[in-house]
Amino acid sequence: MELHKGEHLVRQGDSADHVYYVLRGRFEVLLDGRHLVAEIGAGEPVGEIAFFGGLSRTADVVASRDSEVLELSRENFDRLAAAQPDFIQSILRTLGRRLAATTAAASALAPRIADAVGLCAAGQSAVPESLVADLVQALRDSGSRVCVLRARDLPGDVAADDERLMSQWLGGQEQRGSTLLLVSGDGNPAWDRAALRHCDHLLLCGRLDEANAGPVALGELERYAAPLFRPRQTSLLLWREQSGTAIAHTRHWLQGRALHLHHHVALDRPGDFGRVARLLTGRALGAVLGGGGALGAGHIGTLRALGEAGVELDIIGGTSIGSVVAHAYAAGDDAHAMLADYEHFFIKRKALGRFTLPWYSLLDHRHLDACMQDQLGDSRLEDLPLNFFAVGANLSTNELEVVRHGLSRHALRISTAIPVALPPWINAQGQVLVDGGVMNNVPISVMRAIKSGPNMVSMLSPGNEWQVKSAYERVPSRLALAWQLLRRQRRDDDFPRLGEVAARSMQITSGRMLRGTGLGSDLLLKPPAVPGMGLLNFKLGRAQEQAGYEYTRRFLDKAGGLEGIQAWQRGEVMPEFED
User: Superkingdom of this entry's organism (predicted)?
Assistant: First the structure.
């Protein structure tokens, strides 16, 4: 039974009189016709739960590319199961894995690795041959077997407009075990359309500077391809001739295009293609940096040690101070520049050191905003060389707010809006946003929803159990506090202050969220706090950075350095590390 891309195999609510087995292609499982809950590929059954349980179909199953299935009625299934016991065992193993995954799932579905990628020009510029060659080489260097197919590779007895023969031929190429890269745009429209219908993933390629004049209209083939793919199946590669050319106006490319990720590459820098290849094949290394106030200098030390060891991060994000450090890394700053900016921002400028009347917040947000404006200007997230995300908490929807586009200073202001200490951010829809640490201080679930593959998690902790020498009874009354303020007296006890309580409260979510989400095969780094370090003690930032650096060096030594990290990225087990 053959299905074209976009056709329904089963519909939610229908009776389950048949079970299916995917021979080639791929299918999406959609709850209520909209919410993607699973993807099913060749060699896997479809509809087995409802079939065995005598239930109605629980979701729609739609072909995400031209596909072929084996359709079995109950009578035919019983006959086949009796003749081929291994067949029923295969289905039962798949059923068991799916049930186990459903039970353990605590986060969004990670993107499935594409078996067939369609390369399609975006905008008005043709895709350079050198780009295709560099991408293919990068895919092979990443460990993938790649089969590049163009219209000229079609056998003489297969016409591109013969859907049945074309699908069979492409399916045969895929069964050889290679990732297919189907290149369009060679002047054969029938091939272009048939090839794109066979793909799991659409990789659009556009020339960055086309956006200099404003939004870029969809090209002719791009208009055909766009409706065939869901956003999570679509990415945009924006190329420029030289790495020295500044990245700008990316937002004009993103307007009118529903995308999962976009990538920036320079044709004179092959390493950029390596990053794209790893993201396409599930080998990209992501980093998630947790919140923790002044302790964030430890993240800088961790990144310094990783950089010295030759470890490349392909995508990065974080919460609160973690988002600030992650943004600097995504912008291309080295650790020395990050630490210099940290000290300038928090110590010299005292961005969090100017108080105000405590009606909306304790701190003067206008001073913080001015410092951010001076440091970040009008830079935008989509123009960063690496994909980046910041996390906030949306108090209007009670949901995590993942920020991946827009002005950098706005994204970081959202992610660092510590309740009480700073006023919340109000977005264009009138929603109230605060520091992401309120909901998820270590947002590994966000990274997993964006990409497949390995991740490093850097989690900050103030250290030992928080104990103070003061007592509740010593909290001054309104009059006593007013008298102290008038006389400018400083209290000599260590009763917790508002800002510190707010910051500490968000640290609680770190361990709890990791336990709930599960670390899996991802790596957890926990840079230690230096003696006397507090969440707001930015003056110890340089010592904290050094502590993070030395800790990560010890971790890398135990892991076997760069070779050990690369082995882990390939799926080998990393030895446990206790510092």
Answer: Bacteria
